[in-house]
Amino acid sequence: MPRPMLRCSILTGLLLLAPGPCFGGGAEPDSAELARLSAVPRSEMVAVIRRYQADEGALSRAYRADASPARAERLARLYDGWLSALDGMAFEAMSLDGKVDWVLLRNTVERDRHGLKISADHLAEVGPYTPFAGTVVELAEARRTLVPLLPAQSAARLDELKKQIEAAKKDFEEKLKPAEGGGPGVTPATSKRLLDVLEGLRGDLSDWYGFWDGYDPVFTWWNAEPYRAADQALDGYIRVVRERGAGITPDNPDAIVGSPIGREALLADLKFEMIPYSPEELIAIADREMAWCEAELLKAAAEMGCGDDWKQALERVKQTHLEPGEQPRLIRDLANEAVAFLKERDLITVPPLAEEVWRMDMMSPQRQLVTPFFTGGEVISVAFPAASMAHEQKMMSLRGNNVHFARATVFHELIPGHHLQQFVCARNKTHRAPFSTPFWTEGWALYWEMLMWDQGFQKSPQNRIGMLFWRTHRCARIMFSLKYQLGEWSPQQCIDFLIDKVGHERANAEGEVRRTVAGGYGPLYQVAYMIGGLQFRALHHELVDSGKMSNRDFHDAVMAEANIPVEMVRAMLTGEAPPRDFETRWRFDELLHPAQKK
Questions:
Q1: Interval 283-315: pLDDT, tens
Q2: Exposure pattern of 229-262 as b/e (b: 16+ CB <10 Å)?
Q3: Nearest to 440 by CA among 370, 524, 512, 374
Q4: Contact call for residues 338 and 376 (beta carbons, < 8 A)
Q5: Which of 57, 59, 89 is nearest to 71 (CA)?
Q6: Which residues contact 52 (CB under 8 A, 6 or more apart)?
């Protein structure tokens, strides 16, 4: 059951979110609103969470050399100390908010500690190719601890470092030869990890030299030339690893190269994200959802006179793009249409200030190589052809950002999606910021695509094709990203899959895979859209379809809890406090599909 007086708690807990005469249509609250805000109970863990953030951040900034054993040892002591201290807290005496926050903080500390092991594993993997790393780390640590500098000795170490780097480069080149002849050699994945480590070491060496250079004339006299030579050698080594190892060359600067993490690492990440499913189970869920999408695509195609050829129907939809210069007007109109739809059906509170402050930018051609579609938040960044693009790129961007695709995307990025998320999170339970997860961020926005479909937002078969394209795309993201991380598919296989199963333009498919493999996103980020959406859908089924809450109360309550794993949102909304020995166990998909229950 939901907590008693749930709607009342929402009204007192949301800053400028509840409608009423005190709102005034803008950002200026009255004294009664401020009084309600000041009376909101606080979790017992607020100061504890902020202390952890401050301590962990301070140490991470102080121990800047990622390859430093001292950094790993000091952070390990921090994490172990915090876990011990958390275990000593009076958990049972805490409120529901406090217990949820305690579980979330412990999960975060354990995840941070696990990250140290992953970093150590990666350093060990490339250790044979970086025998000189200890020299760079020692210099960086000497700077941190302010060990007195002996310029002549550091010059000698730099001279030796240059020789070590050149020897390591030669050894790496020798190990590449079997790969060129068809043997095992050094894999692109290992080369990518090595490239990341080498660039980090080069940055550490540059920081060390820059600290003294010019401020100590004797240091500069001794070290300027040895440093230049060592840096040049390191740059040459990096170039060989990048071009010959990873395949990122001047002729192919946008090569897609990543580092699959494997099944065990995926299981660990899923546990920290509070998703009690295996990669294989998630792929099965995606396959089932994909089948639903394909059935709906066939219905829409038939209504458009395309028979059972949904790809022909999709092609027609792609032709409905606007002329250059017209896209901003379309985005504005689509944003207004979505907000009017939400208000008409009383689905969620939309603060007037949130409507007032969102803005629009046009996405650069370079960024569209990684993100070929919209991104959103307070600023919606619009992907659309620029004059500098080649003709083929312009046409693919026009087709991939057509009217019906955009109609299914704008509300995902603005209201009730990412912009409203960020607006509310900036005003509620801000101490929970360290616990944010893409399963809430992207899952919430994808959930609204599902709910808007259920509420009849699509008005034509073309609208349905637009919405189904994205829904199919999110199923495909689970399948190709997990198969890549499991080492089963190559980036090219992922690209071909998106073109064949979803109907992507080739350049857009390449951008999607580049984003997943080499775009700086976590290995589960693409999984989080559909799986997070299904989590919210299951929670909606449990609380709204059952009649326990209205749509508006449910959605406002979710937003009030800020960005945290959805299983913990469920704990807050149902009043079921997690136990001290919490382990993720909410099999949310079984609520939607009881036949899947084990």
A1: 999 999 999 999 999 999 999 999 999 999 999
A2: bbbebbeebbebbbbbbbebeeeeeebbbbbbbe
A3: 524
A4: no
A5: 59
A6: 82, 105, 108, 109, 434
* Triad 480, 197, 486: Cα angle to 5°: 20
What's the sign of the alpha-carbon dihedral 514, 517, 518, 520? positive
On whether both 283 and 219 belong to a single domain, the answer is: no
* Average of per-residue pLDDT values in the chain: 90
Q: Give the tens place of pLDDT for each residue, 332-365.
A: 999 999 999 999 999 999 999 999 999 988 888 8
Strand-pair partners of 435: none
- How far apart, in whole angstroms, are the C-alpha atoms of residue 240 and residue 170? 10
* CA 135, chain centre distance (Å): 34
Residue 316 lies in a domain: yes
**422 near 483, Cβ under 8 Å?**
no
Rounded CA gap, 304 and 320, in Å?
14
The Cβ of residue 220 has, within 10 Å, a number of other Cβ atoms equal to: 16
Q: Which two tokens stand for residue 382?
A: 């619009």
Residue 229 and residue 143 share a domain: yes
* Structure tokens given for 146: 């302010």
Domain count, the chain: 4
| Residue pair 451/347 in contact by the 8 Å Cβ criterion | yes
* Statement to judge: residues 33 and 57 lie in one domain: no
Based on the fold, state whether residues 121 and 154 are members of the same structural domain: no
